[in-house]
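Page 47, continued from p. 46.
Same chain as before, 119 aa.
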Amino acid sequence: MDALVLRDGDSLTPHSEGPSCLDSMTAYAPLTWTLPVFHEVPPVVDGGPREGASGTTTSDGTGLLGYEVAEGDDSRAVAERFGLAMEDFVYCNPNLGGATDHPHLRPGSTQALRAPARS
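Result:
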């Protein structure tokens, strides 16, 4: 939703394409969404491949961005490799379903190592 259209006697109606000339509008306003970061994830440092965390990393030039899961990788070992608490690792990867105890990693998948890379 990127705009709200308010009509006489109508409730707020979301529109994604802006107002139509056929609408009888009372008001129109474009919306800009800004949300603060609620969870700060510390910068990560690669402690090097180890048992349970032997996958490869990706970078965007400003630091580590992602981790490609290898066969036999374990979520706890991957988090430890990068100095992340399990809570931070799971926050960066909502695809893990919020299971902070021991989420399953699928070989070949890419896991985010910082919050802006969440998907």
